[in-house]
Amino acid sequence: MLRxxxxxxxxxxxLRLLELINAGRIAAQRYHAxxxxxxxDFAPSWFRILLRLLKPETNLLFLVGxxxxxxxxxxxxxxxxxxxxxxxxxxxxxxxxxxxxxATYAAQWMQRLGVAEDLGRYGEEWxxxxxDHAWVRHGSEPVLTGFPDPSVERKFLAxxxxxxxxxxxxxxxxxxxxxxxxxxxxxxEALKREGxxxxxxKESGLVFEPPSVNVxxxxxxxxxxxxxxxxxxxxxxxxxxxxxxxEAAKEAxxxxxxxxxxxMTRARDHLYVTYISS
Length: 278
Prior knowledge:
The protein has 278 residues and is an alpha/beta fold. The chain has helices spanning 12-22, 44-53, 78-81, 100-112, 115-120, 150-166, 181-193, 246-264, and strands spanning 33-36, 60-63, 143-147, 174-178, 198-200, 213-217, 226-231, 267-276. The chain has eight helices and eight strands, in the order αβαβαααβαβαβββαβ.
């Protein structure tokens, strides 16, 4: 029905693009070099397109990724794609964005929830960060707090943000992350009722002028960094008890842990993690 109506969903786009390249309607081998960021979330078909667009005489393909931050399940194997990494790769271990305390806290969450085992399924490994280099910063310990219901959590957020603003912070220094879009919208509205400028981030992007607290979903947080980050309603992540099999439970828990890890590592200076305990 989609093809009859000449409509496409997201998964069809790379396949259609490959068809057009093969048919000669899009020129292949156009680029001397390609740089690809966030490769952990690329599907195999995306790389097949990139390889078709790369000039073989240069073959310069620069890939950057972190399996611990994968937020989508991809059946990706470099060898099957014809991309040889052996002897050509380098692991970047130093942490520059986060303080020592935030980076250590996020890593402990990952290890506790068995993400290293999950990475092994994809032929990857958990990489220990180097946190003793000259540029590492120190700061306050992350705050983990539970609440009996969402209204109490939002009241805490409003109170803590008002305190931060009174201390000279700008609203645009603050990012709030949620697992669901409706929760993000509800939090933004609750903050505005307390006189705090807040925006539920949509496709239009982040809002910095006029200064505003940005509230968005964890899936939208990749690549972002803010001085202060609230990882809100962490209890909404997949619950292993809702899975039909033990394998599915482990996958759901690992996926949730990676998303939370992405959220935590957006914070440069201060990190809060909140959840509903009832």
